Amino acid sequence: EDVDRLNAAIVLSRERLTRFEVEVRHKHVKTAEVRWSLLRSTPSRCPDGSTLWNGIELDITERKRAEAALLAGEGALRESEARYRRLVDLAPEPLLVQQDGQIVYCNEAAVRLYGAESPARLLGTPLFDRVHPDDLPIAVERTRDAAQGVRLPVREFRHLRLDGSEVAVAATTGPVEWQGRPAMLVFASDI
């Protein structure tokens, strides 16, 4: 397939007298190792009608290997994230992610705990709206401490369902990264 692409680029370049750039695989003459080259060339027409090529060949094998490793790593990362997401989604305990004060993720157990019809009802709302006003100062302080890396023990809080009723929870929080930015993972078990 690389030979066909290279030949097509050469023919088009010769016809239009435009520069071509093609990445191709080839076997090294001595070692038979598959190598990658970047071929760049600009044609010019000679007085006798022939084509003179002015170009360069760059060995890009290491770059291609690095790209392949990066893609493999990204694929493994996506697979790992999908497994983790499935685990969190199916967790029987309520889990939420708070970022910039807003709920950006909640699992089904959290949806049930807060009496929401769906996650959409909680997403984008302030997490502290779910904390009883009397417990809010300590919740804010603990969130700040957790963001600083303090490992917090589980503590009882009163949270508020969407209908305003209270629910006692055993909660803790810790820092996580969510979509490349700092966030807080909140565990809030109904007690």
How would you sum up this structure, described in words?
A hairpin with a 2-residue loop joins strand 4 and strand 5 (102-106). This protein is α+β, with helices and mostly antiparallel strands. The mean pLDDT is 89. It has helices at 2-16, 61-90, 108-113, 136-147, and strands at 20-27, 34-45, 51-59, 95-99, 102-106, 155-160, 166-178, 181-190. It contains 4 helices and 8 strands. The strands form 2 sheets. It has a 5-stranded antiparallel β-sheet.
Specify the overall morphology. Answer: rod-shaped
Helix content percent band = 25-40%
* Approximate strand percentage: 35-45%
List low-confidence stretches: none
**CA(first)-CA(last) distance:** 64 Å
**How many β-strands, per DSSP?**
8
What string gives the helices and strands in order?
HEEEHEEHHEEE
Structural class: alpha+beta
Strand arrangement within the widest β-sheet reads 5-4-8-7-6
Rg measurement, Å: 30 Å
Major sheet, described briefly? 5 strands, antiparallel
